[in-house]
Fold this protein.
Amino acid sequence: MHLPTKLFMTGNKILQITAIDVNRETYEIGLPIIKKAGVDHKINFIESEALSVLDQLLKYSENEGSFDYAFVDADKDNYCNYHERLMKLLKVGGIAVYDNTLWGGTVAVPEEQVPDHFRGSSRQAILDLNRSLADDPRVQLSHVALGDGITICRRIF
């Protein structure tokens, strides 16, 4: 199954949003409301895999430390890769939010108790991300048991 790549970031510009998704249809669902609010000119939608866009952004040093916020709800196997790139793009004090970090609650149970439909590389990627974030001295963490869990990371240096 191919999951959509969603990454929303705000930068130094006056409330400028960069939205990345492999499926433009996802963006277009909300487009009528965005247009009605008169903010469509503030959104830079990029139809692409997020890693390649993040790598492009990092080619220009002026982008480092220039983003305020990122929301990641993408292919779970790349969450750790997103995090490393976002730590370069986010300013100190910036926030990265990762979705689905409870993975159906299975991150807190032994492997043998995990239902078959939650097993696999995505669960392992979420476990790896959670361990990595807990060990990352660059961030302060807050985990919110909302929906399937979100982890909020504040970059402290």
Observations:
- The first strand starts at residue 7 and ends at 11.
- Residues 7 and 72 are 5 Å apart (CA to CA).
- The beta strands are 7-11, 17-21, 43-47, 67-72, 90-99, 139-144, 150-155.
